[in-house]
Amino acid sequence: MADSPIPPSASLSAILNPNALFDNPLFAGGIGLAGLGAAAAFARRAVLSGGAMLRRRMLVNVEISRRDPSYPWILAWLSQPRENPGFVASRLTRIHNLSVATSTRSLDPAGSHTGPVQASFFLQPGYGRHIIRMRDGVYIAVNREKTSTANMSTGEPHETVTLTALWPHRHIFEEVFTQAHALSARAHEGKTVVYAARKLEWAPLGEPRKKRPLGSVILDEGVKEGIVADVQDFLSRQKWYVDRGIPYRRGYLLYGPPGSGKSSFIQALAGELDYSVAMINLSEVGVTDDHLSYLLTKLPKRSILLLEDADAAFQNRKQREADGYSGPTVTFSGLLNALDGLAAGEERIAFLTTNHIDRLDPALIRPGRVDMMVRIGEATRYQAGQMWDRFYGDIDADGSGRERFLRRLDQLGLFGEARGSDVPARHTSTAAIQGLFLFNKNDMEGAINMAEGLIPRTFEPEPQNPAGAIKSPA
Ligand SMILES: Nc1ncnc2c1ncn2[C@@H]1O[C@H](COP(=O)(O)OP(=O)(O)OP(=O)(O)O)[C@@H](O)[C@H]1O
Ligand SMILES: [Mg+2]
């Protein structure tokens, strides 16, 4: 009957009669298809939600935020070359998206910004998903992504890396973090990391620098040893402080003329203690009281806080009154608060430096803020001799060159003693002596002959009325 033509009346009754409808092969086929489709959709939904459930139950995620100190370690660990696994695994784990992190470092030891620059490129897995093979049958899925929330202070997009492993393999993460940490420790071995304040974050300032040996900084007799002994004593007394409820902090103030080795000494000390340096320049415009106190609560672990140009906080107060508002800067009370206000961290070694001790407020020099003050002054005879030995010790075996050099400096009045009426008492800096020796590498005679260059130059303004200039008393 199916293949006999349907009379017009029958087709009408078929519309009204469901049985007739199902007898219609065209219609039945359609229903069947729709049913299949619905079943497929249902099955898909079930698989999806089952998958999601499975994923929740079977997988373990670890999310690492960019703000976490382990973030760069993990990125470095991810970009490590890995041994070649089998064909399938190698296809699976090939990373197709890479991003590059470039860091530059000045080759000029003085750290100038104009000299030659060394750049190192460092390939990291880019954004997206990657798979890492840990060992046979153990894989980690990695998803590096930018999230939509940006860091409000810097405007940088926030970033996370999520590591995913199967639940039974969850202990692999401990291994990942241990390896990543060891890798970064190895990269930093013999190096000093210098952090600088970038708005509300501490960011490494360039590549970690090679540790500066403490012996390469020559301070006057006993000065260096005194500070190092004090810091080491402090570091060994944590329990003493904690037992007595005293915040475990110590502050040092190094003051003196420019180029006397203050900053160099602090960097060398950090290297000696295997600490990093967290540096803020207080004369920088843009660092506010709020920034300062916030940053001090988040000091990187095992770091020495270095506040350069501490006098700026006092200077700003006056200057601002004199020449109006010139941008946000740290104020005196802001500095004191940051150093020992409620928000100040519990553990800290701080070094403050200044060229103008006279501009500091006595309130700064109070235990807990500054416990030890040391003047790092102009070059003394002892320092000049020691520096000579470091530079020419091997070619000046009998020390006669050193004697002549020191005598020459004496003749020039450079150790603060006048020589007759035309050689006034004056001083030179250790930085200037270093400059002279660097210019005359392996050339003692050159250094002695050019010693006159150590006389500090005074940059006087052009005389207003050259003829018959009136000199005011110094
Ligand atoms: N006492 C020193 N021993 C060895 N090197 C020194 C010494 N003093 C200065 N130098 C050299 O001179 C340069 C400048 O020194 P540094 O920056 O440490 O001086 P500073 O006292 O911090 O000066 P400023 O007060 O201007 O910040 C560095 O290259 C450093 O190596
Ligand atoms: Mg300095």
Automatic annotation (TrEMBL):
Family named by the database record: Belongs to the AAA ATPase family. BCS1 subfamily.
Residue span, BCS1 N-terminal domain: 34-217
Superkingdom per UniProt: Eukaryota
Keywords: ATP-binding, Hydrolase, Membrane, Mitochondrion, Mitochondrion inner membrane, Nucleotide-binding, Transmembrane, Transmembrane helix
Gene3D superfamilies: P-loop containing nucleotide triphosphate hydrolases
InterPro entries: AAA+_ATPase, AAA_lid_BCS1, ATPase_AAA_core, BCS1_N, Mitochondrial_chaperone_BCS1, P-loop_NTPase
Entry-linked SUPFAM superfamilies: P-loop containing nucleoside triphosphate hydrolases
Identification of the protein by name: Mitochondrial chaperone BCS1
Pfam families recorded: AAA (PF00004), AAA_lid_BCS1 (PF25426), BCS1_N (PF08740)
Any one of the GO BP annotations: mitochondrial respiratory chain complex III assembly
Organism of provenance: Coniochaeta ligniaria NRRL 30616
Membrane topology: Single-pass membrane protein
Main location: mitochondrion
SMART domains in alphabetical order: AAA, BCS1_N
Cellular component GO terms held in the UniProt record: mitochondrial inner membrane
Residues covered by the AAA+ ATPase domain: 248-380
MF-aspect GO terms: ATP binding; ATP hydrolysis activity
Catalysis performed (reactions): ATP + H2O = ADP + phosphate + H(+)
Compartments where located: Mitochondrion inner membrane
Regions that span the bilayer: 26-47
